[in-house]
Inverse folding.
């Protein structure tokens, strides 16, 4: 007598008992009954380990061979084939389930994009926007707090800058403690036409062709880069002697910087004096 002990928590299958009448059929019925009673198989076999599946596959293959050789009734033969097919599907499901579990177990590495950054008062941002993920897409943010809530507050998944200063934000990203230093600054005031100082610093006049050029100096006193400006130049005094020159000029002048540019104004009968020229900024744009 020998045993097929594929499920240690169940009774072994006695194949000697199956050798009486229709031994292969009886052995097949013993295995089928044991599989039916096994809770793992009753649930679809997804909890069965690969060792058990491989063992049962071998037994079913032998029984299928015996069914053909010893002419076991066709209904029994069909049942053996059905169980073999079901076990093959179970094996695929176990492999897929194991791969899915291994993938799920591997967490993405989450870190802040940099150790330092700057935010602006009145402009809240999501903490997610400051985080980089590697090796996955799942993100868990826990225990987020600010060292100076009066400067930078943590509100749910948002960081809320309140006033100028510096704060350190700490949080557990996918279970790992991380930190970032955030400087909060006030938004710079919008530039006005008064922030672009403009003057005439040079005049070039051609007595032969009467072509007249003005060299203008621009100074940006704002906290923004002035990109373009609409400038009007008035030459002369009185109602009849005044001449106007209005243009949209491209400057791209950075904060606190100055620059000079020369422009052709028009043909004039005589060279003007600086005291006869006035310059005014009518409109500007910035970034």
């Amino acid at each position: 007598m020998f045993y097929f002990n594929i499920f240690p928590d169940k009774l072994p299958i006695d194949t000697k008992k199956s050798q009486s009448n229709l031994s292969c059929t009886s052995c097949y019925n013993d295995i089928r009954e044991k599989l039916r009673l096994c809770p793992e198989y009753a649930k679809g076999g997804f909890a069965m380990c690969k060792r058990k599946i491989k063992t049962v596959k071998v037994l079913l293959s032998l029984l299928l061979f015996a069914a053909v050789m010893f002419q076991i009734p066709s209904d029994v033969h069909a049942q053996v084939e059905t169980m073999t097919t079901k076990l093959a599907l179970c094996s695929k499901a176990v492999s897929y389930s194991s791969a899915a579990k291994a993938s799920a177990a591997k967490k993405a590495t989450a870190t802040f994009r940099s150790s330092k950054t700057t935010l602006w008062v009145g402009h809240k941002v999501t903490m997610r926007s400051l985080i980089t993920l590697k090796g996955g897409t799942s993100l868990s943010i826990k225990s987020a707090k600010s060292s100076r809530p009066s400067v930078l507050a943590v509100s749910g998944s948002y960081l809320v800058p309140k006033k100028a200063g510096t704060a350190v934000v700490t949080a557990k990203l996918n279970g790992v403690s991380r930190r970032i230093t955030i400087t909060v600054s006030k938004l710079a005031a919008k530039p006005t036409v008064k922030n672009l100082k403009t003057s005439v610093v040079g005049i070039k006049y051609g007595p032969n062709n009467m072509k007249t050029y003005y060299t203008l100096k621009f100074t940006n006193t704002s906290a923004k880069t002035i990109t373009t400006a609409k400038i009007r130049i008035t030459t002369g005094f009185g109602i009849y002697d005044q001449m106007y020159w209005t243009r949209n000029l491209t400057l791209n002048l950075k904060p606190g910087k100055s620059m000079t540019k020369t422009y052709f104004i028009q043909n004039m009968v005589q060279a003007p004096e600086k005291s006869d020229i006035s310059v005014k900024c009518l409109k500007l744009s910035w970034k």
Q: What stands out?
A: The chain has four helices and 17 strands.
